[in-house]
Amino acid sequence: MSAKHYSLKPTARALTPTGGFLKGFAFSLNPYIGCAFGDGGGCPYCYVRMLPIARVESGSWGTWVIAKSNLAERLEVELAALEKKGRLAETTIFMSSATDPYQGIERRLGLTRAALEVFERHPIRRILIQTRSPLIEHDIEIIRALGNRAIVSLTLETDDDNVRRANGARSKALGMRELYAKHGYEEWFRPGAERDLIDAMRSRLGDERVLISRAGFSAV
Questions:
Q1: Cα torsion for 125, 130, 131, 132, to the nearest 10°?
Q2: Count of domains forming the chain
C-alpha cells in the first residue's frame, strides 16, 4: 500500500458554480482536493480520478490530499455576499463533487465541520453532503441543527465482502454477516432486503423523506 501524502494550502474561493449532472445545485463545495480512500488509483468506480484535478499533485489518485486551510473563512465571505444580494435563501450546494468531505485527516483538521458551522450562521436553502465515511457521525448534531436544509447522501457500496474485494477501495473486511447477526438482523442479509429497508424507513420517516430515484442528485 502506498504512503499517503497530506498538505495544506489556502484557496481563493470556497464555492464553485456547477452544471452537468449537478445542475440541480448552484455551487459545489470541496474542502479537500484529492482523496486518500483506496490505493493504486482509488476506488475503480470513481469518476474524479479521470478528471484533470486528479493530476494536480504527483502520485496516483488515492494517495494524496490537499486540505484547503482557509475554507471556512472564504465560505463565510461568499455566503455573506450571497446574503447581501438576497440569494442566500435560494442557494443550493453540493458537498462534495470532487472529493469526499470526510477524509481521514478531517478528524484532525475539521474543515468540513467548520463549513457546516458557517451554514448554521448563514442558512441556505439546501446543502447535500455526499460521503462514504463514517466520520460524518461526529457532526450529526450540527447536521441535525440544520434541519431540512441538510441532506446526507451516504455511499453504501455493498455488504458482500466478495464484491468489496473485486470493486472497492482496499479496506479491511466488512464483517457484515457477523454485524447483522450481532444486532438481530440475520434475515436482512440477503438479496432484495433493500426493499424491506426502504419500506421500514418510509413507515418511520414518511414517504416524502425517503427518496428513491434514477434521476441522480438533481432529484433532490
A1: 140
A2: 1
